[in-house]
Amino acid sequence: MADTKREIERKYEATDATRLPDLSRVAGVGRVLEQGVTELDAVYYDTADLRLAQGSLTLRRRTGGGDEGWHLKFPVATGIRDELHEPLADTLPPSFAALLRSRLRHAEPAPVVRLLTSRDLQHLTDADGTLLAEVSIDTVCAERLAGEGTGTTATWTEIEVELADDGDPAFLDAVEKRLRKAGVRPSDAPSKLTRALAETAPVRKEKKRTKEDPQTAGDHVLAYVRKQIRTIVDLDAAVRRDLPDSVHKMRVATRRLRSAFKTYRKILDREVTDPIGAELKWLAGELGVDRDQEVLDERLSTGIAELPATLALGPVRGRLQVWSAARRTGSRRRITGVLDGKRYLALLDTLDALSADPPLRPAASRTPEKALPRAVLKDYEKLARRMDHALEHPPGPERDTAMHEARKAAKRARYAADAARPALGKPAKRFAKRVKAVQTVLGDHQDSVVARDALRTLAIEAHAAGETTFTWGLLYGHEEAAADARERELPEVWARASAPVLRADLKH
After folding, report:
1. What mean pLDDT, rounded, does the chain reach?
2. 3-class DSSP state for residue 211?
3. How many CB atoms are located within 10 Å of the residue 60 CB?
């Protein structure tokens, strides 16, 4: 796996005559150490249609400096990126190719811009010599290597302030305050590549802008659908890097997209979306194995941790770890295999095609105030039927199953309201909030059902190994009590979500 560094930096406008103010006067700075001038030669890679740049990703091969090699940067927040580094080589490192697969697909990245940078570097340290930040004046010459504007060059000078590893971001505020007093202003360009692409692009006459805000019901549904598609593509690399919660977020995006296809089938032709929905269900299932085990592990571990030490009899923690590890064996490898597979890449191509040429039905041209509430309330009515069915059953397996089905309906109704929220505003927000409360109760109940099944299995394994099963039985009882509490809570929560005024509010 490539080395990863969290890059936190800020860029400022400068000229050839710009001189840095005395940064030793910045609070916390003990010394300013001159590091001399370094010559950097970087070639930036992208597809012909600049897919990486559109996603704010940077891929470069750089020589010169202390970290020459291949660099791949992913945006985290404004001024913050994760930078991955691989050693210098003639070809794109396989690890980077994998992380970019969801964006590159069948395209090969090629050189698009070359940047020659003369970097005059300073180190800001505290009184003990600990590095606080690097400050440089960069004189840049950019050349367009491909596409329109090939051969065009641009030059500029900028100041870059990069926080040291594990540094306090507040220190950058102190440096910026000092720079502003000296007349230095933040740069409009978030990166050198962004500026290079802009300044080497052909000059075009500005076209008359047309209103791009969603107008019709179809506009709003498509905006939501495209957002989920972008989320799936964006999270691909995060899942491969095993970042926290990435699998869960990607799975939620697949579910939201599939749910939108079902809810808004009068807006998007189901003959096109149903097969895509089936593939999204497959993908969610592949992602869910790891996520479901993660949720279960956390619940069981918390249950054990909350017990008094005198009640945790036997090697319960060790048995849980062994049991969990056995169920997780190969899960990460399997997910990566799925993301590298032809079926997944074909799904991404299909989603791109749908986004570019959506299968709109006549209802898509209607006003959102008419078309969207009908679709949301239809999902709500399905939820109401399932809730009635769940509440009429006495406690037991049949009620557990019925509540799980109601949970899935609640999730779909909530997603429907979330999709309609930009058009319907506060009524949709209130609707989604009430339905989410129902979903939360049902979800916790289902988690208890799954946990009890796991606890029974763990107790059987412990008994077979000659261990006491006391603690597993105790935890089973706690989960049973938690489920009972949720079942008692449900009617009141549902009453708030099923109030007639809620439906009337959404219709208006």
Report:
1. 92
2. coil
3. 20
Percent helix, strand and coil across the chain, each to the nearest 5? 55, 20, 25
Give backbone dihedrals phi and psi of 104, rounded to 5 degrees, phi first: -75, -35
Q: Check: CB of residue 375 under 8 Å from CB of residue 418.
A: no
pLDDT in tens, 417-470: 999 999 999 989 999 999 999 999 999 999 999 999 999 999 999 999 999 999
State the DSSP code for 26: S
**Cα 379 → chain centroid:** 27
With beta carbons less than 8 A apart as the criterion, state whether 400 and 449 touch.
yes
Going by the DSSP 8-state scheme, the letter that residue 360 receives in this structure is B
Name the helix (H) or strand (E) containing 31: strand 31-46
Instruction: For CA atoms 418, 419, 420, 422, give the dihedral sign.
Output: positive
Type of residue at 397: P
- pLDDT of the residue at 262: 96
**φ/ψ of residue 56, rounded to 5:** 60, 30
Close Cβ partners of 1 (under 8 Å, ≥ 6 residues apart): 95, 241
Phi-psi region of 330 (alpha: psi -120 to 50; beta: other; left: phi over 0): left
Nearest to 365 by CA among 218, 225, 224, 223: 218
Q: The whole model's pTM is what?
A: 0.87
